[in-house]
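Thread amino acids onto this structure.
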């Protein structure tokens, strides 16, 4: 029994991934890859929204890079863009989702639905939230998460992808891509958000679309096989 336990412990240590996927390729730099103007959108200068200092401290701990921007189009629609990238997506350091972060800042999550966003480059699994802050501020949210070069639904889908990377010896990086807007009409907000995402994706390079949204053939090879 002791020998079996020792062998099991040794096998677990051997199979535990020790190499960061991010260290095997060019560094992830989000800010330079996101243009300040694209399609019908341009960067806007506005004051910040609701900020929880404890939440901000957690963000600084979890993520290697965070960008927060506001864009405006010719119709006056405003989109708040937030991208949070983390080099280590192990269980204790994985991205914190809006349905957790928003209530921590005083918001109420009214609805939370899984869906897909159609783009010319493929479909992205997303979640769409309806949130409110008090009686005046309604903020519909669309977001997705990636693990390595794959957009994941979360839950079992994410876990299977983690296992795949782990078997190949990697600790995957990942990010959370979120767009939101202040709008009392959720249907209008989600439509504008989808338009924003599509115009942004069209302005990105092929490699940036892969890293930010899991769209396009992966350049990652593990054990001689292309990751899919």
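Threaded sequence (228 positions):
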């Amino acid at each position: 029994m002791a020998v079996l336990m020792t062998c099991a412990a040794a096998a677990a240590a051997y199979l535990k991934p020790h190499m960061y996927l991010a260290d095997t390729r060019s560094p992830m730099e989000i800010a330079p890859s996101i243009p300040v103007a694209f399609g019908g959108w341009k960067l806007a200068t506005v004051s910040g929204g609701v900020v929880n200092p404890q939440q901000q401290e957690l963000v600084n701990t979890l993520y290697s890079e965070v960008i927060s921007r506001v864009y405006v189009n010719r119709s006056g629609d405003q989109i708040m863009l937030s991208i949070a990238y983390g080099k280590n997506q192990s269980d204790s350091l994985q991205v914190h989702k809006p349905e957790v972060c928003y209530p921590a800042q005083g918001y109420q999550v009214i609805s939370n639905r899984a869906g897909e966003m159609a783009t010319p480059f493929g479909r992205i699994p997303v979640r769409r939230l309806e949130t409110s802050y008090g009686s005046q501020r309604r903020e519909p949210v669309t977001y997705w998460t990636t693990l390595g070069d794959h957009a994941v639904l979360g839950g079992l889908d994410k876990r299977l992808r983690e296992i795949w990377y782990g078997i190949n010896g990697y600790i995957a990086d990942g990010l959370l891509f979120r767009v939101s807007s202040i709008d009392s009409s959720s249907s209008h907000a989600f439509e504008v958000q989808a338009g924003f995402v599509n115009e942004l994706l069209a302005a990105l390079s092929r490699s940036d679309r892969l890293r930010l949204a899991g769209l396009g053939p992966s350049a990652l090879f593990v054990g001689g096989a292309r990751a899919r």
